[in-house]
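Appendix B. One record, verbatim.
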Amino acid sequence: MALILLQAQEGLLIFCLAVLCAFSLNLSKLYHPNTIFTLITSNLAKRVVKKSNTVTQHKLSGALACMLPILTVVLLLFALSYISFYPQWFGGLILFLCLDTHFEGRAKRIARLLSQGQKGSAKQLLASIVIRDTAKLSEVGIIKASLDSLALNTVRHFYLIIIFYLIAGPYLALAYKLLLLCDQSWRKQLCVQHPFMAAVQKIIYLLEWLPIRFFILIMALTQNLAKTQHYLKHYAQHYVNKNSGWIIALFSASLNVQLAGPRFYHEERFDNIRIGSDRQPTVEDIQHMLKLLNSMRWFWLGLTVLIWFAINLI
């Protein structure tokens, strides 16, 4: 009887194990497949992007440079699933490799370093998880950047990956993850508004537009709904990337602090709206953020399991 039940809920078991392993098994970046893909896309940009190219050439080469490697990887793994003895477990392995949870650990270390007065070390650690310039950041700037990064990366590299996996299976989740890696690798060497990055940024924006709004509205019901709605209306709609604005608005309203604002990329200032009218964040707010993320995670995973059972019982 137990075996029959396990077989009937094999998909749920695979999903839960993949999520559990994402938190308990931290693969080194030295041999993680994501690192290999990031190196490939980074080298592609170095070889393809030339100052003599026109804007149209940049856009075309950028579209090809992101689509060809991603399609190659997705189609290769899709073909391998057909010769796999356990294709569902193969999909679970893909989900595990797509989920990224290391941001929380680094945020804890940044908070600890700031509490010990080691601002320089905190900046160095922050530089490993954000693309913006960190050398001139004040302590408040370090905290803000940590909170912004933690919010954006956790939603995109964990929750949206799960949503795409549940909606359309591991290959859509994989394609989205590879798009994020492509975007991040190019941001490290190019201006964030470079035409070479236009295609990958547009695809990501369109792909995540609806899932982000669905996720934010669901989570707002468990947090400060009225304040989140106010921030979405008055701040998020004026953010440079409205998808990111929605994410930061949720956490700004939940933590009762001001987030986002102007930042520097490659020593060039980019103005952006500050979200929230509350106080500036402190070191303690990083701990509050981690607790909030933990409670959100348990709620979201519990909701996912309940929906899974409800669908299978109908």
